[in-house]
Amino acid sequence: MTGRGTDLASQTSAGSLRIELHQFEARRRDGIESAFLAMGKGRIDAVVIQEDAFLTANNPAIADLAREKRLPSAGSKRFAEAGGQIGYGPNGPDMARRAAYFVDRLLKGARPGDLPVERPTKFDLIINRRTAKALGLTIPPSLVLRADQVIE
Question: Are 27 and 3 contacting, i.e. CB atoms less than 8 angstroms apart?
Fold first, then answer.
């Protein structure tokens, strides 16, 4: 589910895994329920919530609908904390430390154009076992062991 168009990385990844990707957009609160109704008609097997300000603000409602429709769900860390099944994304404190490093360099006179562009290097995996149990799903022990946080 997206607030805007699906990104190219998602489309490329789905294609390489031979997964059929369907996009359901929601830009208003009533659009979330409509998207889930369409997912039900389309026999969707799982839902991935892309991070976007509107969807993040509505994480609890989206997580509730995913559980109600018995759809495995994944999204950001905040999505898992709001009741979604899995959360995965860049580690916030690590990104803040890197940002502080760049601010320090700029304050010491570095030119912005001379600083490298960095991608996140540390990611967090959050598993909501309570939601998985409600859906009748078992999370493999190997995945639970790799999780940074498990919500019981």
Answer: yes
DSSP conformation letters of the chain: -BSSPPPHHHHHHHHHTT------B-SSHHHHHHHHHHHHHTT---EEPPP-HHHHHTHHHHHHHHHHTT--EEE-HHHHHTT-SEEEEE-HHHHHHHHHHHHHHHHTT--GGGSPP-----EEEEEEHHHHHHTT----HHHHHH-SEEE-
Question: Is position 30 within any domain?
Answer: yes
Give the tens place of pLDDT for each residue, 2-41. 665 567 777 888 889 988 888 898 989 999 999 999 999 9
The answer to whether 11 and 17 are in contact (CB under 8 A) is no
Domain carrying residue 82: 8-90+123-151
Q: The CATH number of the domain where 57 resides is what?
A: 3.40.50.2300
Q: How many domains does the chain have?
A: 1
